[in-house]
Design brief:
The chain is mainly beta and 73 residues long. It has one helix and six strands; from the N terminus they run H-E-E-E-E-E-E.
Length: 73
């Protein structure tokens, strides 16, 4: 890096790409009224897990995750 920054040296440009070795999955449990549903996969099976970054995804990366509620607490 010092040679690249220096005006005295000529260095070929290169790039460095980093990739995630492991995928990142986000999971959560639902609360319905006063009843905690815990890990009951039958309650909301499609909404309990979300793969955020797949294996091999470019690093560094960021994502925004939004949660929607049907009704107030």
């Amino acid at each position: 890096m010092a040679a690249i920054k220096s005006p005295l040296f000529r260095v070929a440009e290169y790039g460095l790409n980093e990739k995630a070795v492991y995928g990142i999955k986000f999971s959560w449990n639902f609360v319905e009224g006063n009843n905690y549903l815990g890990t009951n996969a039958h309650a909301y099976p499609e909404k309990q897990r979300k793969m955020i970054f797949e294996v091999g995804h470019k690093v560094p990366s960021s994502k925004t995750i939004k949660f929607a509620r049907k009704e107030a607490i």
